[in-house]
Protein backbone atom coordinates (compact mmCIF):
# COMPACT_ATOMS: atom_id res chain seq x y z
CA UNK A 1 0.00 0.00 0.00
CA UNK A 2 1.39 3.47 -0.82
CA UNK A 3 2.16 5.89 2.01
CA UNK A 4 -0.67 8.13 0.77
CA UNK A 5 -3.22 5.28 1.02
CA UNK A 6 -1.92 4.29 4.43
CA UNK A 7 -2.17 7.87 5.70
CA UNK A 8 -5.66 8.29 4.26
CA UNK A 9 -6.69 5.11 6.04
CA UNK A 10 -5.21 6.31 9.31
CA UNK A 11 -7.44 9.39 9.17
CA UNK A 12 -10.40 7.22 8.16
CA UNK A 13 -11.48 5.86 11.52
CA UNK A 14 -13.55 2.66 11.07
CA UNK A 15 -15.35 2.80 14.40
CA UNK A 16 -14.37 5.06 17.26
CA UNK A 17 -15.48 2.69 20.01
CA UNK A 18 -14.49 -0.69 18.58
CA UNK A 19 -11.28 0.62 17.06
CA UNK A 20 -9.92 1.74 20.45
CA UNK A 21 -7.82 -0.60 22.63
CA UNK A 22 -8.35 -0.70 26.42
CA UNK A 23 -6.96 2.58 27.79
CA UNK A 24 -4.80 3.07 30.85
CA UNK A 25 -7.66 5.26 32.16
CA UNK A 26 -10.04 2.28 31.97
CA UNK A 27 -7.43 0.25 33.88
CA UNK A 28 -7.36 2.97 36.55
CA UNK A 29 -3.73 3.83 35.92
CA UNK A 30 -3.18 7.31 37.50
CA UNK A 31 -3.28 10.14 34.91
CA UNK A 32 -0.06 11.77 33.70
CA UNK A 33 0.78 15.24 35.14
CA UNK A 34 -0.55 18.43 33.51
CA UNK A 35 2.95 19.41 32.43
CA UNK A 36 6.59 18.48 32.83
CA UNK A 37 8.79 20.24 35.37
CA UNK A 38 11.99 20.89 33.45
CA UNK A 39 13.58 23.87 35.16
CA UNK A 40 13.88 24.15 38.96
CA UNK A 41 13.25 27.90 38.53
CA UNK A 42 9.81 29.54 38.64
CA UNK A 43 9.55 32.99 37.03
CA UNK A 44 6.07 34.54 37.47
CA UNK A 45 5.61 36.80 34.43
CA UNK A 46 3.99 40.21 34.80
CA UNK A 47 0.29 39.81 33.83
CA UNK A 48 -0.91 41.65 30.71
CA UNK A 49 -2.40 44.93 31.88
CA UNK A 50 -5.30 45.37 29.41
CA UNK A 51 -7.31 46.69 27.81
CA UNK A 52 -6.67 44.49 24.78
CA UNK A 53 -6.60 46.31 21.45
CA UNK A 54 -9.30 43.81 20.41
CA UNK A 55 -11.98 44.27 23.10
CA UNK A 56 -13.95 41.23 24.17
CA UNK A 57 -11.35 38.69 23.07
CA UNK A 58 -10.35 37.71 26.57
CA UNK A 59 -14.00 37.33 27.60
CA UNK A 60 -14.53 35.09 24.57
CA UNK A 61 -11.73 32.78 25.66
CA UNK A 62 -13.21 32.69 29.16
CA UNK A 63 -16.71 31.92 27.94
CA UNK A 64 -15.86 29.20 25.37
CA UNK A 65 -16.80 25.83 26.85
CA UNK A 66 -18.05 22.60 25.35
CA UNK A 67 -21.85 22.56 25.55
CA UNK A 68 -23.78 19.29 25.36
CA UNK A 69 -27.21 20.40 26.56
CA UNK A 70 -29.19 22.69 24.28
CA UNK A 71 -32.27 24.88 24.73
CA UNK A 72 -35.26 24.15 22.53
CA UNK A 73 -34.49 27.16 20.34
CA UNK A 74 -33.76 27.15 16.62
CA UNK A 75 -30.63 28.72 15.18
CA UNK A 76 -31.26 31.79 13.05
CA UNK A 77 -30.05 31.71 9.46
CA UNK A 78 -27.74 34.60 10.34
CA UNK A 79 -26.11 32.59 13.11
CA UNK A 80 -25.60 29.59 10.85
CA UNK A 81 -24.31 31.83 8.09
CA UNK A 82 -21.72 33.42 10.39
CA UNK A 83 -20.59 30.05 11.75
CA UNK A 84 -20.12 28.65 8.25
CA UNK A 85 -18.27 31.74 7.08
CA UNK A 86 -15.96 31.72 10.08
CA UNK A 87 -15.24 28.01 9.57
CA UNK A 88 -14.61 27.95 5.82
CA UNK A 89 -15.70 31.20 4.14
CA UNK A 90 -13.44 32.52 1.37
CA UNK A 91 -12.23 36.06 2.04
CA UNK A 92 -10.28 36.29 -1.21
CA UNK A 93 -8.36 34.13 -3.64
CA UNK A 94 -4.72 34.43 -4.63
CA UNK A 95 -3.53 32.34 -7.55
CA UNK A 96 -4.48 28.73 -6.83
CA UNK A 97 -5.19 29.45 -3.16
CA UNK A 98 -8.21 30.59 -1.18
CA UNK A 99 -7.70 32.63 1.97
CA UNK A 100 -10.16 32.04 4.78
CA UNK A 101 -10.79 33.03 8.42
CA UNK A 102 -8.90 29.84 9.43
CA UNK A 103 -5.31 29.13 8.50
CA UNK A 104 -4.51 25.98 6.51
CA UNK A 105 -1.10 24.56 5.59
CA UNK A 106 -0.24 25.89 2.11
CA UNK A 107 -3.72 27.50 2.04
CA UNK A 108 -5.00 24.17 0.71
CA UNK A 109 -8.21 24.13 2.82
CA UNK A 110 -8.87 20.45 2.10
CA UNK A 111 -12.27 20.34 3.81
CA UNK A 112 -15.95 20.39 2.89
CA UNK A 113 -18.69 21.49 5.27
CA UNK A 114 -22.05 19.74 5.64
CA UNK A 115 -24.86 20.78 7.95
CA UNK A 116 -27.33 18.39 9.53
CA UNK A 117 -30.27 20.67 10.26
CA UNK A 118 -32.87 19.88 12.90
CA UNK A 119 -34.02 23.40 13.75
CA UNK A 120 -32.83 26.43 11.78
CA UNK A 121 -35.33 29.25 11.15
CA UNK A 122 -36.76 29.05 7.63
CA UNK A 123 -34.85 25.89 6.65
CA UNK A 124 -36.49 22.51 6.22
CA UNK A 125 -34.81 19.82 8.31
CA UNK A 126 -32.32 17.90 6.20
CA UNK A 127 -28.70 17.60 5.16
CA UNK A 128 -27.09 20.62 3.49
CA UNK A 129 -23.72 21.45 1.94
CA UNK A 130 -21.89 24.78 2.15
CA UNK A 131 -20.50 26.31 -1.06
CA UNK A 132 -18.08 29.08 0.04
CA UNK A 133 -17.09 29.91 -3.53
CA UNK A 134 -20.57 31.43 -4.00
CA UNK A 135 -19.78 34.32 -1.64
CA UNK A 136 -16.09 35.18 -2.02
CA UNK A 137 -15.27 38.34 -0.05
CA UNK A 138 -18.63 38.48 1.69
CA UNK A 139 -19.48 37.54 5.25
CA UNK A 140 -22.39 35.35 4.33
CA UNK A 141 -22.98 31.75 3.35
CA UNK A 142 -24.77 29.93 0.57
CA UNK A 143 -25.79 26.34 1.09
CA UNK A 144 -27.43 23.65 -1.02
CA UNK A 145 -29.81 20.97 0.16
CA UNK A 146 -28.53 17.44 -0.40
CA UNK A 147 -31.19 15.17 0.98
CA UNK A 148 -33.75 14.47 3.66
CA UNK A 149 -32.19 13.59 6.99
CA UNK A 150 -33.84 11.91 9.96
CA UNK A 151 -31.95 13.83 12.67
CA UNK A 152 -33.74 12.22 15.65
CA UNK A 153 -33.00 8.66 14.52
CA UNK A 154 -29.65 9.04 12.84
CA UNK A 155 -27.57 11.53 14.79
CA UNK A 156 -26.75 9.46 17.90
CA UNK A 157 -25.57 6.35 16.01
CA UNK A 158 -23.57 8.56 13.64
CA UNK A 159 -21.89 10.14 16.66
CA UNK A 160 -20.87 6.85 18.28
CA UNK A 161 -23.95 6.73 20.53
CA UNK A 162 -23.77 10.31 21.88
CA UNK A 163 -27.48 10.76 22.60
CA UNK A 164 -27.16 14.32 23.88
CA UNK A 165 -26.35 15.45 20.33
CA UNK A 166 -30.00 14.88 19.30
CA UNK A 167 -30.85 18.07 21.21
CA UNK A 168 -28.58 20.27 19.09
CA UNK A 169 -30.44 22.35 16.49
CA UNK A 170 -27.64 21.73 13.97
CA UNK A 171 -24.47 19.73 13.62
CA UNK A 172 -21.67 20.70 11.27
CA UNK A 173 -19.86 17.78 9.66
CA UNK A 174 -16.46 18.38 8.14
CA UNK A 175 -15.01 16.03 5.56
CA UNK A 176 -11.54 16.03 4.06
CA UNK A 177 -10.76 15.84 0.38
CA UNK A 178 -7.21 14.53 0.80
CA UNK A 179 -6.04 15.19 -2.77
CA UNK A 180 -6.49 18.94 -2.28
CA UNK A 181 -3.66 18.80 0.31
CA UNK A 182 -1.73 15.89 -1.29
CA UNK A 183 -1.52 17.96 -4.50
CA UNK A 184 1.03 20.07 -2.62
CA UNK A 185 2.24 18.01 0.33
CA UNK A 186 2.02 14.45 -1.00
CA UNK A 187 2.58 12.05 1.93
CA UNK A 188 3.04 14.90 4.47
CA UNK A 189 -0.47 16.17 3.67
CA UNK A 190 -2.32 14.08 6.26
CA UNK A 191 -0.34 15.39 9.20
CA UNK A 192 -0.98 18.95 8.02
CA UNK A 193 -4.71 18.25 7.58
CA UNK A 194 -5.03 17.03 11.16
CA UNK A 195 -3.39 20.22 12.41
CA UNK A 196 -5.68 22.29 10.14
CA UNK A 197 -8.72 20.63 11.67
CA UNK A 198 -7.82 21.92 15.12
CA UNK A 199 -7.82 25.49 13.85
CA UNK A 200 -11.12 24.96 12.10
CA UNK A 201 -12.73 23.59 15.26
CA UNK A 202 -11.44 26.45 17.36
CA UNK A 203 -12.83 29.02 14.92
CA UNK A 204 -16.28 27.41 15.05
CA UNK A 205 -16.21 27.26 18.85
CA UNK A 206 -15.05 30.86 19.30
CA UNK A 207 -17.57 32.10 16.75
CA UNK A 208 -20.34 30.19 18.48
CA UNK A 209 -19.27 31.74 21.79
CA UNK A 210 -19.18 35.21 20.19
CA UNK A 211 -22.77 34.66 19.00
CA UNK A 212 -23.81 33.64 22.51
CA UNK A 213 -24.14 30.00 21.41
CA UNK A 214 -22.67 26.77 22.74
CA UNK A 215 -20.85 24.15 20.72
CA UNK A 216 -19.03 20.85 21.10
CA UNK A 217 -16.32 19.37 18.89
CA UNK A 218 -16.62 15.62 18.34
CA UNK A 219 -14.02 13.09 17.30
CA UNK A 220 -16.25 10.20 18.40
CA UNK A 221 -18.23 9.36 15.30
CA UNK A 222 -18.99 6.30 13.22
CA UNK A 223 -17.14 6.63 9.95
CA UNK A 224 -19.42 4.43 7.86
CA UNK A 225 -22.68 5.97 9.14
CA UNK A 226 -21.43 9.54 8.74
CA UNK A 227 -20.09 8.90 5.26
CA UNK A 228 -23.36 7.21 4.28
CA UNK A 229 -25.43 10.14 5.54
CA UNK A 230 -23.21 12.56 3.60
CA UNK A 231 -23.40 10.30 0.52
CA UNK A 232 -19.68 9.54 0.48
CA UNK A 233 -18.22 6.12 -0.09
CA UNK A 234 -14.48 6.18 -0.65
CA UNK A 235 -11.18 7.66 0.48
CA UNK A 236 -11.45 10.61 -1.94
CA UNK A 237 -13.68 12.37 0.60
CA UNK A 238 -14.68 11.24 4.07
CA UNK A 239 -15.85 12.57 7.42
CA UNK A 240 -13.17 13.82 9.82
CA UNK A 241 -14.93 16.02 12.40
CA UNK A 242 -18.34 17.00 13.74
CA UNK A 243 -19.34 20.06 15.77
CA UNK A 244 -22.72 20.64 17.39
CA UNK A 245 -24.02 24.21 17.77
CA UNK A 246 -27.00 25.80 19.50
CA UNK A 247 -28.17 27.86 22.44
CA UNK A 248 -26.97 26.33 25.69
CA UNK A 249 -29.69 25.05 28.03
CA UNK A 250 -30.06 27.57 30.86
C1 LIG B 1 -10.61 16.89 18.88
C2 LIG B 1 -11.69 16.90 19.92
C3 LIG B 1 -12.58 15.86 19.98
C4 LIG B 1 -13.61 15.85 20.91
N1 LIG B 1 -14.54 14.85 20.88
C5 LIG B 1 -15.58 14.90 21.71
C6 LIG B 1 -16.64 13.97 21.59
O1 LIG B 1 -16.67 13.12 20.71
N2 LIG B 1 -17.66 14.06 22.47
C7 LIG B 1 -17.71 15.02 23.43
O2 LIG B 1 -18.69 15.06 24.17
N3 LIG B 1 -16.74 15.94 23.55
C8 LIG B 1 -15.68 15.92 22.71
N4 LIG B 1 -14.72 16.89 22.77
C9 LIG B 1 -14.83 17.96 23.77
C10 LIG B 1 -13.82 17.77 24.90
O3 LIG B 1 -14.25 16.74 25.75
C11 LIG B 1 -13.68 19.10 25.64
O4 LIG B 1 -13.07 20.03 24.79
C12 LIG B 1 -12.88 18.94 26.90
O5 LIG B 1 -13.55 18.15 27.85
C13 LIG B 1 -12.55 20.27 27.53
O6 LIG B 1 -13.73 21.01 27.80
P1 LIG B 1 -13.96 22.47 27.19
O7 LIG B 1 -14.06 22.32 25.68
O8 LIG B 1 -15.23 22.95 27.80
O9 LIG B 1 -12.77 23.31 27.54
C14 LIG B 1 -13.71 16.92 21.84
C15 LIG B 1 -12.82 17.98 21.77
C16 LIG B 1 -11.83 17.99 20.81
C17 LIG B 1 -10.91 19.16 20.72
Short description:
The chain contains 7 helices and 8 strands.
Task: Outline the structure in words.
This protein has 250 residues and is an alpha+beta fold. It has one domain: 3-Layer(aba) Sandwich (NADH Oxidase). It has helices at 3-11, 57-63, 77-88, 151-158, 178-185, 189-210, 223-229; strands at 92-94, 97-99, 111-117, 126-130, 143-147, 170-176, 214-218, 238-246. The strands form two sheets. It has a six-stranded antiparallel beta sheet with strand order 5-4-3-6-8-7, sandwiched between helices. The chain has a two-stranded antiparallel sheet with strand order 1-2. A hairpin with a 2-residue loop joins strand 1 (92-94) and strand 2. 36% of the residues are buried. The mean pLDDT is 96. Bound molecules: flavin mononucleotide. Flavin mononucleotide (FMN) is lined by residues 65-66, 68, 162, 201, 216-220.
| SS element count, helices | 7
CATH architecture: 3-Layer(aba) Sandwich
> Uncertain runs with pLDDT below 50, 5 residues or more?
none
Largest sheet: 6 strands, antiparallel
The arrangement of helices and strands along the chain is HHHEEEEEHEHHEHE
Count of β-strands: 8
Which structural class matches the secondary elements?
alpha+beta
How large a portion of the residues is in β-strands, by DSSP E? 15-25%
Q: What separation lies between the terminal Cα atoms?
A: 51 Å
Overall geometry comes to: globular
Which small-molecule species are bound to the chains here? flavin mononucleotide
Give the averaged pLDDT, no decimals. Answer: 96
Number of domains: 1
Measured as a percent range, the helix fraction is: 25-40%
Broad CATH class: Alpha Beta
For the biggest β-sheet, the strand order reads: 5-4-3-6-8-7
